[in-house]
């Protein structure tokens, strides 16, 4: 009996089960039943359903089914537990915006799965953990999955073409069939599996593509090293300041390092006798490698300077993690060059295999409680606030809302309690987070907003006016999101003996808005006004200082209204205010 057919049949069956599982998860989101109602369950199940069958499809053969299944299930359960923890970071569902939470998890988990797969294949096939074998598996897996994915998309395109052609002639059956979830989930899963099976049977094509990319990267590596050396030579003449003044210089340097290391490992594959280049170019390459720690030092200086100035953030944590990994790779290669000179390639595999394990452990840690970057960012910002390094006005509360998930949500709820009496304006701003417009208006919120209005020069604002101000300013959550203070002044610009009120709103960024309230038909209304700003050459002063002892003066317009028949012409000057008297 030909047992080689059994893995193929098993692979197709696994793909079919995966498709139906994905269909059930999709329907739970569509119709709002469990597990969609529980982020922890939903993310855990998605992680297992996506990862375990994919590992099986890419690596199974008739000799390793048991060991591979054991390893794939074990690793998928680990990823499910990490997804469970990520689900715990989702803020209460009515306010949840999970894009910034899921993207780093999905990206880091995809990298982790890619790395684990090659180690799993070596273990399942009972082979030695040699770098050339790991390298070969990595490229085969990448190209196999990529080409199979293209085949799946082409299959989907052909089905849509089929459906579209019949829809044109008013035969809607195929269009309705191919766009139903219960049809395309299992069909596309089967198409991906069939593509993987087909491409895995044509290993010579994958190996040919691998050799082609190795040949292309052979020349790209020389160019990358040449550019990096030119950059380093130019630094004494330009100084270090432009690196960080003209954009994210640290991250560009990290990208350059990553590209060099990627090209290096694609060209050299742990064979000490291998010479892709002549001796001169070979030494030119490892000269570039010897200088990589210089770039790591530059990045470390830039990142630590930003951290000292602004504190930690998610991007700075990620930058420091990437910096540490690339620096360890570079130091490992440099140590090999120092010890073995021209034969340093023989140490390449040892560095890569050990650093691969470190890389996987880091990816696991950052998605677990052990190294939760969101919690660490919140703790750092809270510590900076407690030490006086930043003020409440300087805290980017929207960053906590959009990027820090549950840790950000928890600290904002704590701040609402801590500052309700000492800084009600800060609480007003916090109340605008996580909420829709319909949830903003409440008696407590109204009292907080009105307590932030300072009546200058002894003015006594009517209660109806304050109610209208609250109604207007609370129309949407953005109006008071960046509010620093509000001031109210009595005014009578039409000189009719009835007082109007000028509301001046100052934002934390220094921008000032003016609103004139007048009683119209027994109700207070905000009139449309045009505000002319001071001349650009006049120095800005804090608003409270400029309003402290003022008295409003009224000037007759230089151009009066003109009436021509039924037409009224009102001349309005739009340049900055200047003293022309």
Automatic annotation (TrEMBL):
Lineage: Bacteria, Pseudomonadati, Pseudomonadota, Gammaproteobacteria, Alteromonadales
Transmembrane stretches, start-end: 9-29, 41-60, 72-95, 101-120, 141-163, 183-207, 219-244, 250-268, 280-303, 315-336, 348-366
UniProt keyword terms in alphabetical order: Membrane, Transmembrane, Transmembrane helix
Organism: Marisediminitalea aggregata
Protein name: DUF4153 domain-containing protein
Record bears the keyword Phosphoprotein: no
Tagged with keyword Hydrolase: no
InterPro entries per UniProt: DUF4153
